[in-house]
Specification:
Number of strands of chain B: 4
Order of helices and strands of chain A: EEHHHHHHHHEHEEHHH
Structural class of chain A: mainly alpha
Largest sheet of chain A: 3 strands, antiparallel
Number of domains of chain B: 2
Distance between the termini of chain A: 96 Å
CATH topology of the largest domain in chain B: Arc Repressor Mutant, subunit A
Shape of chain B: rod-shaped
CATH architecture of the largest domain in chain B: Orthogonal Bundle
Shape of chain A: rod-shaped
Number of strands of chain A: 5
Oligomer: heterotrimer
Distance between the termini of chain B: 46 Å
Number of helices of chain B: 12
Helix content of chain A: 40-55%
Radius of gyration of chain B: 29 Å
Strand content of chain B: 5-15%
Structural class of chain B: mainly alpha
Number of helices of chain A: 12
CATH class of the largest domain in chain B: Mainly Alpha
CATH superfamily of the largest domain in chain B: Winged helix-like DNA-binding domain superfamily/Winged helix DNA-binding domain
Radius of gyration of chain A: 48 Å
Largest interface: A-B, 69 and 80 residues
Strand order of the largest sheet of chain A: 3-5-4
Chain lengths: ~290, ~210, ~210
């Protein structure tokens, strides 16, 4: 294993193998001696991730510091590789040629004499290249770090146990009072007549009491009229019950029965026969809403 | 290879597999030179099973091998992981519910007359199943239609003491100003209910996956 | 509801979920009237984690919650459950992903500037399809290039809780300090480079999985 070969891989595969095996021996030496079979060389060259990667390789191979690149020598080596890539008819991305031009430019600027007093670092023609190389290298490093993180489906797996039977109780939707009232407002506006005649002035407790009375009448033949009233509800409660009874009578939902003159009044849910009679008397009683909406 | 390692590999493999794994297959996981005997695999499985006593999961042998499964007693809470976000009720349902509240006792035909469109029977069924509406009798006309009324639960859900706490239509006309007041009233029930259901929605799996 | 039951429900749920589950979500699994306090959930998680010491699995917190995972030390035997080798990602993809992770939000053009080479559109598509990267907006410059960022799934996949858990990015050295640093650098940076490059071939997880 040679530490100076960064692309220890082939194509898209990571850290897997030396770029070639010759006579059973892994080949990781740089191709300077050109003893490598062209096919292996091709694989090696293709593994570079662009000109910065290639330059970094050249620098690291010689244990040079990125901050102090011998530009003339590196440029020479870089161009050698470019030529090699051309010879092997590798598809050479434009970036490689651009970098070659940049290196040539830096080299020529390095050759120009600089006033000794101004040998300041910012004047170093290599500065931009050094910055880019470092920037690229740190992300190249970060990519390697990332690849080493234990990751799902390769190094770790999420533990899974079988849930044989799922009992999913559906969640019921929530309704706010406001939503319901807005819906009511809409429907009432659509049926404006109905609204005017009834809802506006109606006490809803009468409606509630109507439901309660009907329920109370279910399953029993006759209910004592007086027992529908509760003294403890006071005058208001009695009135509500009374209005509710009148409304139920009007709608034909119950009938009041008296066995004899002066006998106690009884109330019962209207029978089909009575309902028909009521319907004959008063059309509105059987279909109040119907008549109200028109 | 010691027993603990064998047991750990087996446990890890059963949990990673997501399917039943046979004892033979478990044995194949080990390198040949240190592969435990079939008896050692069986022993490790028995130890694992014992270790799961009184825990949330159990080891069980099914047709194609061994698997670790959630104990049936815990299926109910665990199933909540897949609980779907509740849908919203339709406008038609809300209108129907409001009409039942304001005009009870009322038949479906009467609701249809007011709304001007047919009421889907599912709507009536939904509000009845929810416990907000019930059938309190029948109108004695041909067809004996059911008379619908709201329930005690309806009042409780909306935080009302009686139906009289509902605003009159005149008040409803001013619902924008009423809104302030209503939120105040509704503060007893509706926001409470949404508090329960909103947090899971915020970080529910589907919300997370969808973003 | 006693502590054991709470712990069992949590263990069962984490194993049944097949995805990380947050502590808040775990708490929601319990009926309202017996829902443990958030602290009780945390305590149960801590107990579970302790119970997995020396076992084949471990409890780990990642970005979207808690999960029970097979220990990486057991990857070699456990991976034999599958015929296929785990997917390997190209250097180009990993470098692109690293740039998005460390420099987000970032455009494709900015990635290309740093890598010094064009980014294959397939790479961007792959990381988006894997759910690791998403487009979070556009940079308001000509062409309105897409701004890329990593997702919670990315963190989950790599076993991280937050972006802060990513390995530290190497420091940039300034060319100005060159003269002073030269000796120092010769001592640290070169061996460092070889350190980075040698081990991966020998004992990186992918090498282990790939042989």
């Amino acid at each position: 294993m040679n530490a100076t070969v960064p692309p220890a891989e082939t194509g898209p595969q990571q850290h897997e193998m030396p770029f070639a095996i010759v006579d059973g021996e892994p080949v990781t030496e740089p191709p300077k001696d050109l003893y490598i079979p062209p096919q292996a060389l091709k694989v090696f060259l293709e593994a570079f991730e662009g000109p910065l990667d290639l330059l970094l390789y050249l620098i690291r191979r010689q244990n040079l510091d990125v901050l102090d690149i011998p530009i003339a020598e590196i440029t020479r080596q870089y161009l050698e590789y470019i030529d090699l890539m051309r010879e092997l008819e590798l598809e050479l991305a434009g970036e490689y040629l651009l970098m070659a031009a940049m290196l040539a430019e830096i080299k020529s600027r390095m050759l120009l004499p600089r006033p000794a007093s101004e040998a300041a670092e910012e004047d170093d023609p290599r500065a931009e290249l050094v910055r880019r190389l470092q920037e690229y290298e740190r992300f190249k490093r970060a990519a390697e770090d990332l690849d080493r993180l234990p990751r799902l489906e390769r190094d770790v797996w999420a533990g899974k146990a079988e849930l044989v039977e799922r009992h999913v109780a559906p969640l019921l939707p929530d309704v706010t009072l406001k939503e319901m009232l807005l819906a009511f407002k809409d429907v009432i506006q659509r049926a404006a007549m109905f609204a005017h005649h009834h809802v506006q002035r109606e006490r809803l407790s009468v409606r509630q009491r109507m439901s309660q009375i009907i329920e109370a009448l279910q399953g029993s033949e006759l209910v004592d009229f007086a027992r529908l009233f509760r003294v403890e509800e006071g005058r208001m409660g009695v009135t509500v019950t009374f209005v509710a009874l009148l409304e139920l009578l009007r709608e034909g939902l119950l009938e009041v029965v008296q066995a004899d003159t002066y006998a106690p009044l009884h109330v019962r849910a209207s029978t089909p026969r009575a309902a028909v009679a009521a319907a004959n008397d008063d059309v509105a009683a059987t279909a109040p809403a119907d008549s109200e909406t028109r | 290879m010691n027993d603990t390692t064998v047991r750990n590999v087996i446990e890890a493999a059963l949990l990673a597999a997501g399917r039943p794994v046979s004892a033979a297959e478990l044995r194949e996981l080990f390198d040949e030179f240190e592969r435990p005997a079939a008896e050692a695999i069986d022993a490790a499985l028995a130890e694992l099973a014992a270790g799961y006593e009184g825990r949330g999961v159990a080891l069980r042998e099914v047709a194609s091998g061994w698997r670790i499964e959630v104990r049936a007693e815990l299926a109910q809470p665990v199933s909540r992981l897949w609980q779907e976000r509740p849908a919203k009720y339709s406008r038609a349902l809300l209108e129907t519910l409001a009409l039942i509240a304001y005009r009870q006792p009322i038949t479906r035909g009467e609701i249809e007359d007011i709304r001007g469109v047919a009421v889907n029977p599912n709507i009536i069924r939904t509000v009845i199943e929810r416990g907000w509406v019930r059938v309190i009798g029948h109108r004695e006309v041909p067809g004996r239609p059911e008379l619908l009324a709201t329930t005690r639960e309806f009042l409780d859900y909306f935080g009302l003491k009686t139906l009289d706490d509902l605003p009159t239509l005149a008040q409803l006309k001013d619902i924008e100003t009423l809104g302030v007041q209503l939120e105040f009233d509704a503060g007893t029930s509706a926001p409470e209910a949404s508090e329960v259901q909103e947090p899971p929605a915020a970080d529910s799996p589907s919300a997370a996956a969808g973003d």
